[in-house]
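Class, discuss our next protein.
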Amino acid sequence: MYIDLIKTAFIAVDVQTDFCPGGALAVPGGDEVVPLVNNLAAHFPISVATQDWHPLGHISFASSHPGKKPYDADESSGRSLTLWPDHCVQGSAGASFHPQFNEAPYRLVLRKGFRPNLDSYSAFFENDGATPTGLEGFLRGLGIHSVVLAGLAFDYCVYFSALDALSLDFKVIIAHDATRSVDHPAGNAEHVRSYLSNRGVLISAAEEILGHE
């Protein structure tokens, strides 16, 4: 696979303690992506890391909705919202990057989900689909045309980042072995993978992505 490094950015999505084993919203095998993510970031001149950064009482927390429990759906805001355990609370240990995550290669750390009443899966837009995070402008200013995505979780934040990147006319590649899935509901991860492939997202192993060297 040939990748023009000058026009491609690597985006590490939410490689945070709370999404790894032992964390508040642990993704199975989440910590296993860290070495691959570190290796990928080291090969790209432009690397960006995203970080969930929720205030206490965030709308996505089940604890903010009386009578609800994690993984329930809530539609009180007029749109369907998956409710989660409290996670990645601003300034908490769980919101920190995984201890083995190497922050040195990253030109930008983008914090998302910090608005109390609006969740944010994607690296590009909040969940209203309209409020930008600023990442598109940052990448456009650097002449970036393609993005390589990795991190947590494949079927949520990586997935929505990929869809938004496509909608903004970026070429999108996912390093699938450098992601892990929540897979809720069961089978969601495979559905997401098929949908992304059908939309034109390239899904490859990290080694194949770096095979241009």
Summary: The radius of gyration is 16 Å. The first strand starts at residue 8 and ends at 13. The longest helix spans residues 154-167. The domain at 5-61+88-209 is CATH 3.40.50.850 (Rossmann fold).
